[in-house]
Design a protein that fits this description.
The protein has about 260 residues and is mainly β. It has 2 domains: about 70 residues, Hotdog Thioesterase (Thiol Ester Dehydrase, Chain A, Roll); about 170 residues, Hotdog Thioesterase (Thiol Ester Dehydrase, Chain A, Roll). The strands form 2 sheets. Strands 1-3-4-5-2-9-12-11-10-8-7 form an 11-stranded antiparallel β-sheet. It has a two-stranded antiparallel sheet with strand order 6-13. Helix 1 runs antiparallel to helix 3. The longest helix is centred in the first third of the chain and has 9 residues.
Length: about 260
């Protein structure tokens, strides 16, 4: 039986796995481009069964579907990304430093320490209709081939899209679906830029695009995702509760966190 387990380190909202990371784990059974739909919050530290079916695979908790994935076409091309320095400046305006729905999130959580979380803090780019953040992957993210494992690239393409639109005052947001195409590999310590942009809204659904660019400026991954506005289970954490990590890293700190 093919099983996966989402370790607690890779949480998104409290008690459940980060959507992009879980999607990447499931997409690994398909290929470089996949569409993953999340049916319910992925439980942590629990055996989850991967079940193949016509055209894709499902992730099951017992017999309950958690997510399903299918091969997909490549998402539309990404707009030009800002440079690393411009992305670093944008990160200082990350709205999660003021108020964050999930400060413990593996990808964008301000309460995660360098080397533990990805700490991708996407803020608005001056003169552009997108948000961006620098990202220097830690060596702990590398696989046996020496490159950053692909589920972490999926994770990096997840959360920035949530910061391209306003969070509802009475509720929160969750990833519903993500389609991604990984085009290349990332090395630990590489100075990357992750960017995101809003594509449109339909009722409580927001469609966003995200992209990952490497140190050379090449686009190494692009995604399209749907975020859902949902009733909140509790109040969001104020910035005063986020701990010493609740600020943007300097360029030197970003690179040092990868050491």
């Amino acid at each position: 039986m093919n099983e996966i387990r989402i370790e607690r380190r890779y949480c998104g909202p409290p008690g459940s796995g980060n959507g992009g990371y879980v999607a990447g784990r499931l997409a690994a059974h398909l290929g470089p481009a996949a569409r993953v739909r999340l049916r319910r919050p992925p439980p942590l530290d629990t055996p989850l069964r991967v079940h193949p079916h016509d055209g894709g695979v499902s992730l099951l908790h017992g017999e309950i579907p958690v997510a399903e994935a299918f091969a997909a076409d490549t998402p539309p091309a990404a707009p030009p990304a800002p440079g690393f320095q411009d992305a670093s400046r944008a990160a200082h305006a990350f709205r999660g430093f003021v108020e964050h729905p999930y400060p413990g999130c593996f990808v964008c959580g301000t309460g995660r320490e360098p080397g533990d979380g990805l700490r991708i803090f996407a803020g608005p780019v001056s003169g552009a209709s997108l948000v961006a953040a620098p990202w220097v992957p830690s060596p702990s993210l590398a696989g046996p081939d020496g490159f950053v494992r692909r589920e972490f690239l999926w994770a990096a393409l997840d959360c920035p899209g949530a910061f391209t639109f306003d969070v509802p005052r009475e509720g929160t947001i969750l990833l519903g679906e993500i389609t991604a195409h990984l085009r290349g590999d990332v090395r630990p310590g590489e100075r990357c830029v992750v960017s995101a942009w809003h594509l449109g809204r339909s009722g409580r659904k927001h469609e966003v695009g995200t992209a990952l660019h490497g140190a050379s400026g090449e686009c190494l991954g692009v995604a399209r995702a749907v975020w859902l506005e949902v009733p909140a289970a509790g109040d969001r954490a104020p910035a005063s509760d986020l701990g010493p990590s609740g600020r943007a890293p300097t360029d030197r700190e970003a690179e040092r966190s990868a050491a």
